[in-house]
Design goal:
This protein has about 450 residues and is mostly helical. The chain has a two-stranded antiparallel sheet with strand order 1-2.
Amino acid sequence: MAAKPLNLIYGVDDKPPLTTSFILGLQHVFTMSSCLFIPVLIAHEIGGGFDVVQSLVGFSMIASGLGTILQSMNKGPIGSGYLCPHLVGPSYLSVSIQAAWLGGLPLMHGMTIVTGVFEVLFSRVVYKLRSFFPTEITGLVVLMIAVALVPLGASKFVGISYAGDAINMKELSIAVVTLLSMIGFNIWGKGKLKLYCVLIGLGIGYAMSMATGVISHDDYAAFQNAPWFSLPGKGVKFMNYKFDWGLVIPFFIVSLCSSLKSIGNLITCQKINDEKWSSPDMKNIGKGLFADGLSVTIAGILGGVATDTSASNVGLSAATSATSRSIGYYAGFIFVGFAFIPKLTAIFSIMPTSIMGAIVIFVSCFMVISGIQILLSTKMDTRKTFVIGLAFIFGLSVIILPDLYSHLPSWLSPVFASSLTLSTVLAILLNQLFNIGNGNNNKHPIKNS
């Protein structure tokens, strides 16, 4: 039985009042919307018009919302029962564009369905891999989730889109004020002020962006001209799928990498909701991956972009001390509902990158500390030192030297495309290698139910 941490205002089993749950759910929706640029980018890559953009964005939102709801379920074989929202998966961007280039959206959707089915099948056997995730590797995964967010958060925070660009001082000032507002209300705020610290910071950031012109007249006009109601996929052909054997390996590798990230997010959920947490519950993680795989499959069937669990939202739940699964239901239903209201989705689409960066930096702080705490909870011997040290060093190399692995074979490149993925894979392989001859190899204290 999990012990509710004293710092949580609303624990995983608590049910906040309706109004509170709605506002907290809306706060998560803003964070979930941070990756809606991905379907827009894919549509532009294939020369799609407004109908294609609206279709990809709308159906991706529906799949993400349904995935969030499924993840919040705590009965039956589907769902971890934690507040672990879904969003459009950045991990799938490169292979999705590749499929769209080769065979248009039908091929991208067909391969997305195959990938989702693969993750569903993987979720049924992941509990048997408990020896691969001792406490020290768990801590590394959680830490590297935060590290992987650093380039995204820092670049958006200072208003830089490409390496070598000058820092945008106007956007930097907005980011600083937004971040300090969130931190201030989180540290000194009481009750609902602490709960809504991110939403309050967003409001301040939006107001400052409008006052300084970062949100332009064109952005405001786009909001005004957007209709209040519209069906996603209007004018777009449905149920049109293709398949290409040549894309199976790249999509499977990305799916496996995405699953490893979700494992880290779910482990973080377990830790922040249990004062006495000591090791991962792999069967619970399997149920969470099942929900994740179904969300990806739904995205492909409907005609959206593959989804993924959100590290930023997990960090947000820890930052606001509100981890109730009820919030996940509200966030999921709101996200699905917004897919039919272009007027509201326009608010997300004009969100300045500086505000996005402030949110990512804010939640990453909690993820970093959580990973370090897990690492420090286990006694490090020489073997563990090399396992974690080597994996951490080479994982960081992806961020510090981004072109270092640029000439690898295309089927292997997804593993080296992410610091999180590379460090996790290395840690697992090195742990098995260095455990040769160690009689305690299979005695890691990991919960099985």
